Amino acid sequence: MAAVAPSILAADFANLQRDVEMLNTSEADYIHVDIMDGVFVPNISFGFPVAQAIKRYSTKPLDFHLMIEKPERYLENFRDAGADILTVHYEACPHLHRTIQLIKELGMQAGVALNPHTPVELLSEILSDLSLVLIMSVNPGFGGQKFIENSYRKIYKLNYMREELGADFKIEVDGGVNNTNARSLVENGADILVAGSFVFNSSDPHATIAALRKN
Ligand SMILES: O=C(CO)[C@@H](O)[C@H](O)COP(=O)(O)O
C-alpha cells in the first residue's frame, strides 16, 4: 500500500480552501506543498501567506518541498507556516548536514530531494539522518511534465542502500506520477507517491487518490 501526497501546485488557487478541504475528506496521507523561488527553478509558486492559508484549512500533515536556493535562510518560517516534513534540495545546500540538523532541531522531519541528474550515492553519508528522500522524476519547476524512466533505477538503488544500512527513511517520488507507473514505482521501493495533475485533472480526485494508494 503506497502513501499518497497530492501536490497542491495543481489546485485551483482561486478556490484553494475548497481544494484543501477536498483533500481533507480524501484518503490522501499528506498534502505536498511546492515552494519555488524563480532562481533554483525557473518558476515561482507562492510564499508564506499562501502556505499559512493551506495550513489554516488542512487537517493532513504538510509535506513541504523547497525548490529554493539557500533554504537554511527560511527553515523557521516554514516551521511556522505548518511544515511537518521539510525537504531541501541536495543541489541547493552547500552545508547539507547542518541544514538537516537545523530542520530536526526545529521539530520537523528532514528530507532531501535529488534532481534527475543527481546520483543517489551522493547521500550515502547522511541517509541515516533523514526521514525522507525525494526522487524527482521530472526536472523540478513545473507540474504536468513527462515522467523520466531512469527514476525506477534510482529508486531501486536507494531502496537497496536503505536495506543495507537498516535505515528507515521514506522514499518519495515526484513528477509525472500516474496509474501507469505507480505500481512499478512501489515495486522498486517508493513509499510515497506525489501526484499533482493526475489528481487535480481527474473527474473524481477522491477515487484517483484511493486508486493510487492501492499500489
Ligand atoms: O515539484 C514538482 C514540480 O517541480 C511536483 O510536485 C509537481 O507539482 C508534480 O506535478 P505532476 O507532475 O504530478 O503534475
Automatic annotation (TrEMBL):
A GO molecular-function annotation? metal ion binding
Q: Could you say which EC number(s) this protein's record lists?
A: 5.1.3.1
Per UniProt, substrate binds at S7, H65, G141, F142, G143, G144, D174, G175, G176, G196, S197
Please share the entry's free-text remark on the cofactor. Answer: Binds 1 divalent metal cation per subunit.
Q: Per the UniProt entry, what is one GO biological process? A: pentose-phosphate shunt
Residues of the active site are: D34, D174
A Pfam family (short name) is Ribul_P_3_epim
Q: Which pathway does it take part in?
A: Carbohydrate degradation
State where a divalent metal cation binds.
H32, D34, H65, D174
Can you supply one Gene Ontology CC term for this chain's record? cytoplasm
**The UniProt record lists the keyword Zinc:** yes
- What are the alphabetically sorted keywords of the record? Carbohydrate metabolism, Cobalt, Isomerase, Manganese, Metal-binding, Zinc
Q: Where is the signal peptide?
A: none
Known PROSITE patterns for this protein?
RIBUL_P_3_EPIMER_1, RIBUL_P_3_EPIMER_2
Q: Which InterPro entries does the entry mention? A: Aldolase_TIM, Ribul_P_3_epim, Ribul_P_3_epim-like, RibuloseP-bd_barrel
Give the family from UniProt. Answer: Belongs to the ribulose-phosphate 3-epimerase family.
Give the function comment from the record: Catalyzes the reversible epimerization of D-ribulose 5-phosphate to D-xylulose 5-phosphate.
Q: What is this protein called?
A: Ribulose-phosphate 3-epimerase
Record organism = Dyadobacter koreensis
